[in-house]
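Lab notebook page, bench 4
Experiment: in silico fold of construct C2
Operator: M.H.
Input chain length: 315 residues
Purpose: comparison with the prior construct
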Amino acid sequence: MNRICNLFGIEHPIVQGGMVWCSGWRLASAVSNAGGLGLLGAGSMHPEVLREHIRKCRAATTKPFGVNVPLMYPEIDTLMQILVEEGVKIVFTSAGSPKKWTPFLKEHGMTVVHVVSSSLFAAKCEEAGVDAIVAEGFEAGGHNGREETTTLCLIPAVRRATRLPLIAAGGIATGDAMLAVFALGAEGVQIGTRFALTAESSAHDAFKRLCLSLGEGDTKLLLKKLAPTRLVKSDFATAVEEAEARGASVEEMRALLGKGRAKKGIFEGNLEEGELEIGQAAALLHKEETVAEVMTDLLENYRDALQRLTAGGSL
């Protein structure tokens, strides 16, 4: 047992990313039932929909699970009250400062984890009183840090900046990648892309099939004037890239993005007009699996990699 397992009361230090349009109660409960920590992705749920998913997740697992809350959520006060009313015990916050809401959540007995993309913000998290940190490199899908720091560089920098329990994220989809980030100072991993493409994910089948066909270089970090976002190369991504190349203003980029594009692409399967968010690790994945199969493979691959490494002897 390590600090991450002890903190959440889980068997394996594997956290499923709380991804918009992918992370409903079926995915979260499946990960928790397999010994990891499942997260509901509140960012794509209206408050009462989140309440429904919390209740369904609790009915589907007796194991710990949590909720991921983007702090820029438009109805944040209502959402936080629902977390209290429903007795949620673990909250991952992202996309904002943890200073305002961490005291509130901890006053109500919740374990609080915040997602960062730099060692500077990791130190601020410790000051804010969070219980653990997710350090996410820019290999990750969806919204990313402006620093564009890779996981390989970010984890040791954050490890030096804070003594809090540290979870690595971004580009991690295999057991040997888990071993690599543990060697750099992480104590757990948060995996998004691989779980987003499982049978239990609520993403559309067309989106999953596309992502499982991707190769190296088939995603790109775009929308940098708004919030850097890793997207699958597509018709919409091409339009974004062309607009950015000609120096489109923030207002023009917002108009191009519009509303509901992530839902259109990920949840509804519109591969031409949708915003298709997925991480670089998709290039390593080529078949749909169940959560149980993913967890088994992660753990077996980790143990095999550790054995290979130790069998090699010292330098």
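Observations: The longest helix spans residues 291-311. The chain has two domains: 3-203+284-310, 205-281.
Next step: discuss at group meeting.
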